[in-house]
Task: inverse folding
């Protein structure tokens, strides 16, 4: 369960959001500038809230009242960015392995195979990110986040930088992933995308939660 | 070729050449970790007195070298504040030793070493560092596995520039450690001694040609390294 109750001022913009989600896939829906990315960055620990609390499965990650701020590298929260952010100096295999190495996890060839199969990235392992298409890059980024064995997966418009054709290419992988059961927070400004993926919706507007509930709040 | 005086390098000249190389290599290797640390601080941290630190690093670039050399003599000389302490407690003596020449060269080349490293660290995409931290990398591991390898072309460029400056350094070195053949006489100070000696012209010319050759080799080598490193980073 993810519990968020935070306030943050960023220049002129102020974000004030509170929600609690039991859903497997929490969809953060809103126009650009609504504060979706700031909110996800706070859940990841990249952006500390000015005030408030964030807790995941009863584990407090942020609590400004007791001065708790767990840094991102200790949160075990995976993050798939809109712009993939693969490490350009490492090949695909090393990118995929990065989280496992940093968390000092034992090698898990079965898991590695399952995820490379799930995302169809087996043939790309020896390539450099510079030689991948946008869709391939996004799949590798997804695999990299998953292989760090996160407790929660954040996805910030993972299809945002792709054209329609590429989106159709990635969406089935995301649905497969949802059906694997890993909890996710999925950010999008595309209602159709969220209808296919999300089980719960948090609707954001100008830094405030305007509605919360099942996918039907999208209509 | 034996009777052409331009190619007949004497043992004294060899000593000066090897000493120059040793001084410049040691100065560069010792200065590089400090240079990387400082470049990172200047590129990534805000702290009180940052502009003062930045100015002090660049000071050897604008001060007359003789001033830097004299200041080194006052601080690191046998009776200098730091020099006396180091000699008594650690046994390192800089005054009139080749180590002093290396120190002078390291200080003089430091600004040239730091600048390209700082620029290349500033150019590393911080979003990649964020991605690394969400994958479980603690800050020092982010630095070691993402920032440092991505800044490598700049680090190499800084090392080469620093080396080139160190091997050509003259003013601060001769002020601080004098011009002792076999101990502190580098190529530059040997040339200086030779051109003020009657009939030293041929020997001076030999050393001039050698310094040109070393400079060329360093620049071409640097270019090659930088191109390879850059290609690696861009995933080719």
Result:
């Amino acid at each position: 369960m993810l519990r968020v109750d935070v306030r943050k001022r960023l220049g002129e913009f102020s974000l004030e959001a509170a929600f609690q989600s039991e859903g497997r896939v929490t969809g953060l829906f809103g126009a650009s500038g609504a504060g979706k990315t700031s909110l996800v960055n706070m859940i990841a620990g990249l952006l500390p809230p000015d005030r408030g609390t964030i807790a995941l499965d009863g584990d407090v990650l942020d609590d400004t009242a007791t001065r708790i701020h767990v840094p991102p590298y200790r949160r075990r929260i995976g993050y798939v960015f809109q712009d993939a952010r693969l490490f350009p100096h490492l090949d695909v295999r090393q990118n995929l392995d990065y989280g496992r190495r940093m968390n000092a996890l034992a090698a898990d060839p079965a898991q590695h195979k399952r995820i490379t199969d799930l995302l169809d990235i087996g043939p790309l392992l020896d390539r450099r990110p510079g030689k991948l298409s946008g869709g391939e890059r996004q799949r590798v980024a997804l695999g990299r986040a998953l292989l760090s064995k996160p407790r929660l997966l954040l996805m910030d418009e993972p299809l945002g930088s792709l054209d329609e054709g590429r989106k159709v290419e990635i969406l089935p992988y995301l649905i497969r992933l949802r059906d694997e059961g890993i909890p996710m927070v999925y950010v999008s400004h595309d209602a159709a995308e969220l209808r296919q993926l999300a089980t719960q919706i948090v609707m954001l507007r100008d830094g405030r939660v305007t509605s919360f509930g099942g996918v039907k709040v999208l209509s | 070729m034996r009777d052409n005086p331009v190619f007949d390098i004497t043992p004294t000249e060899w000593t000066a050449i090897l000493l120059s190389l040793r001084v410049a290599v040691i100065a560069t290797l010792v200065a590089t970790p400090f240079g990387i640390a400082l470049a990172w601080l200047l590129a990534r941290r805000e702290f009180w007195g940052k502009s003062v630190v930045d100015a002090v690093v660049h000071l050897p670039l604008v001060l007359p070298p003789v001033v830097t050399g004299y200041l080194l003599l006052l601080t690191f000389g046998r009776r200098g504040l730091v020099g006396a302490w180091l000699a008594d407690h650690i046994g390192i003596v800089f005054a009139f030793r080749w180590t002093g020449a290396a120190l002078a060269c390291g200080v003089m080349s430091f600004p040239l070493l730091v600048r390209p490293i700082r620029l290349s660290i500033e150019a590393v995409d911080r979003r990649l560092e964020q991605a690394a931290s969400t994958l479980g990398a603690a800050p020092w591991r982010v630095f070691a596995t993402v920032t440092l390898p991505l800044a490598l072309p700049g680090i190499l460029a800084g090392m080469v520039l620093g080396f080139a400056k160190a091997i050509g350094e003259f003013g601060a070195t001769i002020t601080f450690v004098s011009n002792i053949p076999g101990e502190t006489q580098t190529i530059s100070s040997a040339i200086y001694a030779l051109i003020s000696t009657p009939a030293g012209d041929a020997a001076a010319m030999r050393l001039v040609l050698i310094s040109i050759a070393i400079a060329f080799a360093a620049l071409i080598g640097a270019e090659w390294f930088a191109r390879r490193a850059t290609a690696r980073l861009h995933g080719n």
In short: The domain at 10-233 of chain B is CATH 1.10.3720.10 (MetI-like fold). Chain B touches chain A at residues 125, 127-128, 130-139, 141-142, 145-146, 149-150, 232-236 (CB under 8 Å). Chain B has one domain: 10-233.
